[in-house]
Design goal:
The complex is a heterodimer of chains A (434) and B (166). With 434 residues, chain A is mainly alpha-helical. In chain A, 79% of the residues lie in helices and 0% in strands. Chain A is built from 23 helices and no strands. The termini of chain A are far apart. Chain B is mainly alpha-helical and 166 residues long. Chain B has a two-stranded antiparallel sheet. Classes of the chains: A mainly alpha (434), B mainly alpha (166).
Amino acid sequence: MDPSIIGYVGFAVLLALIALGVPIGLAMAAIGIVGSYILTGFTATVAQVGMNAWEESTDFILIALPMFVLMGQLVFHLRLAEDLYDAVQKWLGRLPGGMAITAVVASAVFGAVTGVSSASVATMGAMTMPEMRRYKYDEALASGSIAAAGTLAILIPPSVLMIVYGIWTETSIGALFIAGMIPGILLTLAFAILIYVRCWLRPEMGPIGPRYSWRERFGSLRKLLPIIAIFFVVIGGIYVGAFTPTEASAIGVIGVLIVGLFMRRLNAACFKDSLIDTGTTTGMIFAIIIGGHLIGRFLVLTDVTSGLVTWIGDSGLNRYVILSLFVLMYLVLGALLDVWGMLILTLPFVFPVMMSLKFDPVWFGIFVVLMTELALITPPVGINVYVMHGIAPEVGLTTIFRGTLPFVFVILAFVSLITVFPQIVLWLPSVSMR
Amino acid sequence: MTLENADSGSRTIAAIRTFHYAVNVATLALSAVVIGTDVVLRYVFNAPLSWGIEATSLLLLVMVFGSLPYVWERGGHIRMELIYSHLNGVPRVFADVATALSGGLFSAALCFEMLRTFPGMRARHEGAENLGVPFWPFAVFVAVIAGLMTLQFVVFAVHSLVRGRG
């Protein structure tokens, strides 16, 4: 049988298994194994499984993944976000929609020390939702702001999604981290402006918060120091070339532990919970990475990927038309799959196509992260919305999804902006890597 | 079902899970310490740890495979629940058996390959050169974990079939 037909059939069965609820990593591994067995035989297939599992799980660069996850978990369990929220709220709380803006800005800063989106929503939601309810904020605006702001954690470095993208596509993780900074800041500003304008037009949506003296405001800045220090050491170290991302991740963990000890918040329970959660997340991500490599190798054997690249190349379509089609594809996939499944499943196809169309790999990395951000807040999967619903069960899922909708349009507009002006993404890495 | 609520052998497997947790704690903490020390030694004494990368790479291997059975037990693998959460009866059993087969295929193949290759690793004295540690005990570790995972998937499949028949 023609290998490409085996490839297409294998991919169709993979989609069927995923639709049926088979865990994505296991489904990819199984189809990769069966497909390779058909094409190369038993010995080569099991050798590939062993080699793949060994190589992926001894890749020094990938240590950054559990380290950054652990750093985020420690920040979460050490309650550093409470200090952060308190400080930001004293400065921005008096603006129209000030508490929602506080949630956005605090989430962005929180994202600078953790690369996990749902942790950001869980932390900020638990703190800001009761406050916004007390001030009678519009429920859709309040919950939607928190859920959408959580997505900033995977755009603002360090980002676990960028690490996996970088490893998978052999793109510099340091360059990806640096590239995420300006888009992260701009998107934070865009979210804040959106809330401000909506609440300025309809003040009842987001009433003004309590007043604080200048002394209280400046006094609160002290509380931001630990998070800012950790961020500057980790990302600053990568920016100036002092550390590799892997080294920065370990330094970040040690930094957070020192901060926790210094603030007397680090205890055995907090440390244990952080380690357990990190272990679970790491295992889950590696299952997808190993499965993704097995299916990726199978697709290479069948020439499906190269066939697709050739077919798109021969179609004569403008590269921006193809990019728009990928935006649509990611919107549909985002409604069906989790971000990890979406990323690993599409990269073997989409990345070679984008490279053949001369898109920059760093730019495309940021594009993919933005598309996965959408997946986190669009129905029916929208993990951040479910996390938000878990924190505020009395707010309906429909209400939260309604609240995230304006942010979806902002992200889509931002994707258009970085497409027209790719230097928004590429300028900072080009300066730092010089 | 996960191994947590499987009746037979659950205590044994819970003990192994605790072991995995201990391994996880040790590997994460050690990795941070080794990498951190390496950076400090490089900048302060211009003498990085020659075995640092090898040590942390092997720690990552232990961490990943030490976590996988635990991830399964906690239902931590990502799946698309859109259809699965609405499945009942035979379709649900079919989905669960497909899951067990998929996972079992991977873990059994991995277990087989590691058991097949470790004697060769031992004979050839393959290992981390700077660290002076042979690879074969790690291959055995992966084989044991993969074997345990295969057992987990078998238990899961049997339980799903029994529940479906009931």
